[in-house]
Write a structure and sequence with these properties.
The complex is a heterodimer of chains A (191) and B (208). Chain A has 191 residues and is α/β, with parallel strands linked by helices. Chain A has seven helices and five strands. Chain B is an alpha/beta fold and 208 residues long. Classes of the chains: A alpha/beta (191), B alpha/beta (208). Chains A and B meet through α4 of A and loops of B.
Chain lengths: 191, 208
């Protein structure tokens, strides 16, 4: 970054920061979500993506339908056992570092579906970072969850995972989950 | 043609195969012999104008003999009335002749009845499960199957999605015991541990 920098040809505005901070800043402001829309929560997810709520304000508007280009899985809706293997496969295909939001009651706990067919929470097979309550959660709550993930990414040691054996997941729920209250529209600061 | 005339026609043609005629809210239903089902269906479609199979459903009359039943809900756009065919299926011989050759819509309906009740449709082109995954060992809409489900292996163990486990029922939204608090005050997952569940079951006499 600094090597070869010539103030005469490249201007005089220089910012000095830690590389960790620069990487974290870039990561948190360009989360590319995997829209794992499984049920009605996906409608709220779409509303969050549309102009009124506009997830682009947080740099996360690039919904990718290929897992290989995503780093944030938003599980929006009821996950049945038949789908669980597919969801897990998509998650496994996403490159590290990656994060996961369980959006809504069903994804978080099975919701009202106490039944033989429904997984009682996607945390049974995914490392969930943020749980959002609500049935479905308001789009503001999803944005709140996204901001919670951004705050988490901000304080990650991005380079540390490189120095390790490379297998240690960066974002995968290791610090314990964040729970976002989704049944009201949060006003202002963090809950 | 009226439903009564249709029943008369059926009686005249399939003598002895028409067991029981019921009428409920202006709709007629007949129980017919299982062996002659396809014959009767073909007659109904080709000569009586029953061009739509609206629904095909399995029924589990647990504790009765014969235990299972298959209902065919037909509609005729020519005569504009509904007609219901029923066949009885005993538990020890769960085979039913497929009607996919007559109404193509029966394909998925028969797969569902197979999936949920274990009815085998003879002559079905593709009798696989449609809602549960292939290899699932149970038939969940049978009356002796618990709503919470049974432990089962998932189809794709290397995907790492774990196993299917019974859902915690007690304290859930569909389980109300006498004297229980209203659902708005109940934490749905509070009785998750097995010991607590058993304790609660004893207390309330609930069967979850």
């Amino acid at each position: 970054m600094i090597t070869g920098f010539d103030p005469k040809t490249e201007g005089r505005d220089v910012i000095v920061t830690r590389l960790d901070a620069a990487i974290d800043w870039a990561r948190k402001n360009s989360l590319w979500p995997m829209p794992m829309g499984l049920a009605c929560c996906a409608i709220e997810l779409m509303a969050t993506g549309a102009s009124r709520f506009d997830i682009a304000r947080f740099g996360a508007e690039v919904m990718r339908f290929s897992p290989r280009q995503c780093d944030l899985m938003i599980v929006a809706g009821t996950c049945v056992y038949k789908m669980a293997g597919a969801v897990r496969r998509v998650w496994d295909q996403m490159p590290e570092p990656k994060w996961c939001i369980a959006m809504g009651a069903c994804a978080s706990s099975g919701g009202m579906y106490r039944s033989y067919a429904v997984v009682q929470g996607v945390d049974r097979f995914l490392p969930v970072d943020v749980y959002i309550s609500g049935c479905p959660p308001r789009p503001e709550a999803l944005l709140d969850g996204l901001m919670a993930i951004q705050r988490r990414i901000e304080h990650e040691a991005a380079l540390k995972s490189l120095r390790h054996d490379g297998r240690a997941p960066v974002g995968s729920g290791v610090k314990g989950p964040i729970i976002v209250c989704g049944d009201y529209a949060p006003k202002g600061g963090a809950p | 043609m009226t439903p009564q005339q249709l029943v008369e026609q059926l009686r005249a043609r399939f003598n002895g195969a028409i067991h029981n005629v019921t009428e409920f809210r202006g709709q007629t239903g007949v129980t017919v012999a299982r062996e002659r089902l396809v014959e009767i269906c073909r007659f109904l479609k080709a000569e009586c104008g029953f061009d739509m199979l609206s629904d095909l459903a399995g029924v589990d009359n647990y504790g009765q003999y014969p235990r299972f039943e298959v209902d065919y809900t037909l509609y005729s756009f020519t005569h504009r009335f509904w007609f219901r065919l029923k066949i009885k299926v005993p538990e020890d011989d769960m085979t039913v002749d497929s009607v996919t050759g007559i109404w193509r819509t029966a394909n998925w309906h028969e797969r569902e009845a197979f999936d949920m009740f274990g009815l085998r449709f003879r002559g079905h082109p593709n009798l696989r499960r449609i809602l549960m995954w292939d290899g699932y060992p149970y038939h969940p809409l049978r009356k002796d199957f618990p709503l919470a489900g049974m432990e089962a292996e998932l189809p794709d163990p290397e995907a790492g999605a774990g196993r299917a486990e019974p859902a915690p029922m007690l304290g859930g939204p569909f389980v109300a015991g006498s004297g229980a608090r209203p659902s708005s005050q109940r934490e749905p997952r509070q009785y998750d541990t097995l010991a607590e569940r058993e304790e609660k079951q004893k207390l309330h006499g609930d069967t979850a």
